[in-house]
Amino acid sequence: MNYEPVIGLEVHVQLKTQSKMFCRSRNAEAAEPNLHICEVCTGQPGTLPVINREAVRKAVMVGLALNCEVAEYSKFDRKNYFYPDLPKGYQISQFDMPISGKGHLEVMVNGQARRVGITRAHLEEDAGKLMHPAGANFSLVDYNRAGTPLLEIVSDPDIKGSEDAKAYLQEIQNIVRYLGVSDADMEKGHLRCDANVSLRKTGETGLPNYKVEIKNMNSFKAVAAAIEHEIVRQAGVLDEGSRPVSETRGWLDDKGMTVSQRMKEESQDYRYFPEPDLPVLHFSREWLEEVKRSLPELPAQRKARLVEQLGMAPKDAATLVENKQLSDYLEDVMSELDAWMITEKVQEDAGTKAKYLKLAVTWALGQFSALLNEHKLGALETKVTPENFAELLKLIGMSKVSQLSAKDVFAKMFETGEDPSNLLESMGLAQVSDESLILDVVRKVIAANPKGVEDVKTKGERAFGFLVGQAMKELKGKGNPQMINEMLKKELGA
Ligand code: MN
Fold this sequence. Notes:
Shape: elongated
Strand order of the largest sheet: 5-6-9-1-10-11-12-13
Radius of gyration: 30 Å
Bound molecules: manganese (II) ion
Low-confidence stretches: none
Structural class: alpha+beta
Largest sheet: 8 strands, mixed
Number of strands: 15
Helix content: 40-55%
Mean pLDDT: 92
Distance between the termini: 61 Å
Number of helices: 15
């Protein structure tokens, strides 16, 4: 391709607060339409908005986590446009004095660190929702969402493709989840993303002279697909010698394409002016310092800690921190194991610790993650307690169960929440580590398989597998493979 994409993302994050942005109506899922509404969020004449302190604090937390300059003064403005889901005829937003100015975010794309600039992050209120009943010649409006707090995060046009976009969006999702300011579920609309996409000739600098905004993407996959589709479409227009129209386009997920919706608005179209009913916000240095100190550990910090302090492999740590619940869970499992190693005086050398860490990570990212995905559950929502998870790892570590049988035990634990030691017993899967029993079996196998023994003598260790297999068969798959191996070697003098 002779072009390179220039992409900026606008991400709307729904903040998790008790009440709405400017009134006391609840900010929560509602059982029926128009349940959480009042005079203010339905735009009745004569009502006045009041700023939600908690929403402001959460917006500032995100700004700080995105390395933004948080302004000393910030104000609200009216953004005027008409739509039936916007009861006042304007949205209270922020124009020239947003909560957060310039910042940046580091994201990993294919193992490479990429820096994406943040232009700004401002607070605003959400609109309601229109519903169009099938076959009806009217529409209905639900104001439950009207007036709920949104943080709009605008990136610099630093994003160079769909992979960058996805990584950036996932990092934002992860950060707001770590901060506890939003559930950031894209499917539920807690996190919404618009993409500004345009192309320039490869090697050129400066912004293209047109801009296309894409809306309606409800998943990470849709964002990536929409961007890829749009790059190809615009390249086609440019190849014909014309210039793509600056417009807003909607993504049709089922058709896998974008369609023109309307001409792109410019900011002057909205006739922004300062909201006269709200005071200017002033953030004192002391307050900002206090918010900064209260920030929890963020994904990047956690990753560094897992690698540097626990000795986790960087790749595992990176995968793990993407899932806050699973990371929290695994840290609980690790502290269970630590406590056990101390009280039971299990050799607390670096090797043992490393062995259990590796086991824990492998199981968390392996079978546990697979089951979580299958059942669409978070790690903290399952029947498997971190204590039982740690217990199973101990049984594996002490060779009381084979890795293979442990998988069956774990599946059952996931289903019933039962204790792994009991399950091992009741499922008859306890691993045989009885030295004399294994020795008996090994001798029997050697006696019964002269050809196998001969092979080991001529071909060496690679012929070993057959005899191990025979012994395992004798022990109904429950033999400790390491012990079988060692005893075979000893008996054959190999
Ligand atoms: Mn917005």
